């Protein structure tokens, strides 16, 4: 076999006949946002079906609401008296159920899901608490100039705190440690 036949660009990297050297072309897909929203709606539908079957198996009542917010599918379950059991202490059962739901969606779509699951408004309420925690910690660090380490948190919780800290002038935040003991540290800007 000749060297030209072995090398995709011909002998010694030369361009073979019929191949033209061109600059890359930027492709603009006007349907990208629509396609993304369609995928997120589909993720929500798949997750809703999965969770509905789970609620039926457990004989729990709950209304499932599907939405798309900030580039991710959001699934909320409200209304049942037993739903607190699906939240668990500090949201641990909710986190595990969210991960199982994401895996169920990925099994159908072949795409890793970033969907957010909320049960009985727990995540919404927790977000409010964490925003206040982040804001007050940031204000205290700005006032004292001393770093503050917060308690270990889940990735969701840390993100909410980081966002709240970022809204306060004169301070910044970073995460330190390893899961499950990873925590936010609020520090004064230099």
TrEMBL record:
It comes from the Bacteria. The keyword Protein transport does not apply. One of its GO terms (molecular function) is RNA binding. Residues 178-190 have a biased composition (Basic and acidic residues). Residues 124-190 form the R3H domain. The keyword DNA-binding applies. This is R3H domain-containing nucleic acid-binding protein. PROSITE patterns: R3H. SUPFAM superfamilies: R3H domain. It comes from Thermocrispum agreste. Residues 1-23, 170-190 are annotated as: Disordered. Keywords: DNA-binding.
């Amino acid at each position: 076999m000749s060297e030209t036949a072995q090398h995709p660009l011909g002998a010694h990297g030369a361009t073979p006949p019929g191949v033209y050297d061109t600059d890359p072309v930027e492709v603009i897909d006007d349907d990208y946002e629509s396609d993304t929203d369609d995928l997120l709606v589909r993720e929500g539908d798949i997750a809703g079906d999965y969770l509905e079957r789970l609620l039926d198996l457990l004989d729990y009542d709950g209304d499932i609401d599907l939405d798309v917010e900030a580039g991710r599918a959001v699934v909320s379950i409200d209304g049942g008296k037993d739903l607190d059991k699906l939240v668990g202490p500090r949201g641990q059962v909710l986190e595990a159920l969210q991960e199982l739901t994401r895996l169920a969606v990925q099994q159908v779509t072949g795409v890793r899901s970033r969907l957010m699951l909320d049960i009985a408004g727990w995540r919404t309420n927790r977000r409010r608490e964490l925003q206040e925690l982040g804001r007050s910690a940031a204000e205290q660090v700005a006032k004292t100039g001393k770093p503050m380490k917060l308690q270990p948190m889940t990735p969701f919780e840390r993100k909410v705190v980081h966002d709240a800290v970022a809204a306060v002038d004169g301070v910044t935040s970073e995460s330190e440690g390893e899961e499950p003991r990873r925590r936010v540290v609020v520090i004064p800007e230099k």
